[in-house]
Design brief:
The chain is α/β, with parallel strands linked by helices and about 300 residues long. About 45% of the residues lie in helices and about 20% in strands. The protein is built from 13 helices and nine strands. The longest helix has 28 residues. Bound molecules: S-adenosylmethionine (SAM).
């Protein structure tokens, strides 16, 4: 099976929607897809509204990618060790299953980040410990370890890159706003039912200031709009969607210095919702400034979001 076919087959194994759903809203954004291969992820990003510039150095893969004639996607030939200057700064950087080719990832990331605007995001997806497997004889485990160590020493590949993504991002001044494992069914596709892979696919989404991933206010606004058009109170609907529970866990993952920024961002984002809730209550004859409304807003005030016991 050629490399193009192999990559396309792998694309189908992976739960890409989980990662794509976690990105900020893409319409109007310019996104760089570094190590784009046959362009499957460039196609997915473009399908969600981004203008994508895919870079790769493998001409065969680029030929295959270009033959798809994807709207809003351009494929360029470049070595990521010396990414050429772009005409304008990009809004996002996508890099899937390519970071491991750069054992000194932070050096590469620092250069790539020069092509990004100040509020741009980076989404990295990489496998960790590809060979981790149970059961494994001590001899086979030692051989695999030696192979991975040799690749790292030679600067070819870092088989344990998945676990290091956050650290590399931090070194270049990016703070992870979401980190999770992506489901990859290929890892479970072992010939023997009593064998299992311990490899994991790590995903990290980061911004320079560690601010709320832009998709959150986007989702809040959408829920609030839906609530108002359905004749309900946006705050009640938000609570019903568990949106505030999701936010409550978020600050705990932030460095302490960032928590203040997070609370301030929450206050900014919740106040239009409070105003709309009050307007809604007034429209429906409720006492917007009365104890019930006050209690509801108090329950949702950002300070409580930082308290895991506040549900
Ligand atoms: C495993 S594939 C990942 C393809 C695609 N991003 C995906 O998630 O399916 C890694 C890609 O990185 C590209 N790549 C590796 N080193 C590179 C370099 N120095 N410059 C440009 N592309 C590189 C390879 O050619 C290949 O297409």
């Amino acid at each position: 099976m050629g490399l193009s076919n192999e990559y396309r087959r792998q694309f189908a194994w992976r739960d890409w929607d989980r990662v794509l759903d976690a990105l900020p809203p893409l319409p109007g954004q310019t996104v760089l897809d570094l190590g784009c291969g046959v362009g499957d992820l460039a196609a997915s990003l473009a399908a969600r509204g981004a203008k994508v510039i895919g870079f790769d150095l493998d001409e065969e893969l680029l030929r295959e990618a270009r033959s798809r004639q994807l709207a809003d996607v351009e494929f360029r030939s470049a070595d990521l060790r010396a990414l050429p200057d772009l005409e304008r700064k990009a809004d996002g950087l996508w890099c899937s299953f390519t970071a491991a080719y750069f054992p000194e990832l932070s050096t590469a990331l620092a250069a790539w980040a020069e092509q990004l605007g100040p509020s741009a995001w980076i989404a990295l997806t990489e496998i960790d410990d590809l060979f981790a497997h149970e059961p494994l004889s001590a001899r086979t485990a030692a051989l695999l370890r030696a192979y991975a160590d040799d690749a790292l020493r030679a600067g070819r590949y870092e088989f344990r890159m998945g676990r290091k993504l956050t650290e590399h991002l931090a070194r270049v001044g990016f703070t992870v706003t979401e980190a999770f494992a992506m489901k990859d069914d290929e890892l479970d596709c072992l010939e023997r039912a009593d064998h299992r892979s311990l490899a994991r696919v790590h995903c990290c989404i980061a911004t320079r200031d560690g601010s709320l991933a832009a998709e959150r206010p986007h989702a809040l606004r959408k829920w609030a709009r839906d609530a108002v058009s359905a004749g309900g109170s946006p705050l009640r609907v938000l609570a019903g969607h568990g949106a505030l529970g999701g936010l409550a866990g978020f600050p705990a993952r932030l460095a302490r210095g960032r928590q203040r920024l997070f609370r301030r961002a929450c206050r900014r984002r919740l106040s239009p919702l409070r105003r709309r809730a009050a307007a809604h209550d007034e429209d429906h004859g409720a006492r917007a400034s009365g104890p019930a409304a006050h209690h509801r807003v108090r329950r949702l005030r950002p300070a409580t979001l930082n308290d895991p016991s506040a549900k």
